[in-house]
Design brief:
Blueprint: H1 7-14, E1 19-24, E2 30-31, E3 46-51, E4 54-63, E5 76-83, E6 88-94, E7 109-117, E8 127-134
Parallel strand pairs: 6-8
Antiparallel strand pairs: 1-2, 1-3, 4-5, 4-7, 5-6, 7-8
Length: 136
């Protein structure tokens, strides 16, 4: 089975503020981040598409205890965003004080950018992750 979108290409696109996903030819569902089969029907017949990167916050959490090697990054807020294109994706939220994050964030519109994080002893090097900011 062939990967239509490998994580390296997904990661490189994120570094250019492009969010790539896979649209299933069988059921139309969009899968992001990349997987080998559709998240909805498990079909491997998918096409690479570019998503808008905008959506609404559906839930969030604020991290106060850092993972090893990232002690200087806390606190930070992670959001789960329902994209306008359909799928949900997780990313960090910028532009707010994480200590002030409240339930008022749920339902707020956001737009995606990216942040490059350094590698650690558990990864294969630096990688980009979605970084969301509030839209007025």
């Amino acid at each position: 089975m062939e990967h239509k979108l490998i994580f390296k290409d997904y990661n490189e696109a994120l570094k250019q503020n492009k969010l790539l996903g896979l649209k299933c030819r069988a059921c139309g569902a969009i899968t992001v981040p990349p997987k080998i089969v559709c998240r909805q029907c498990a079909s491997p017949d998918m096409d690479v598409i570019e998503l808008k990167g905008s959506g609404k916050i559906r839930t969030f959490t604020t991290v106060f205890v850092a993972s090893e090697g990232r002690e200087d990054e806390v606190p930070y807020t992670i959001v789960m965003v329902e994209l306008d294109d359909g799928p949900w994706i997780m990313g960090n939220l910028e532009g707010i004080d994480p200590k002030e994050a409240s339930m008022e964030l749920v339902g707020k519109k956001v737009k995606m950018g990216h942040k490059v994080f350094p590698g650690d002893k558990y990864s294969a090097g630096e990688g980009a992750r979605p970084l969301f900011s509030l839209v007025n």
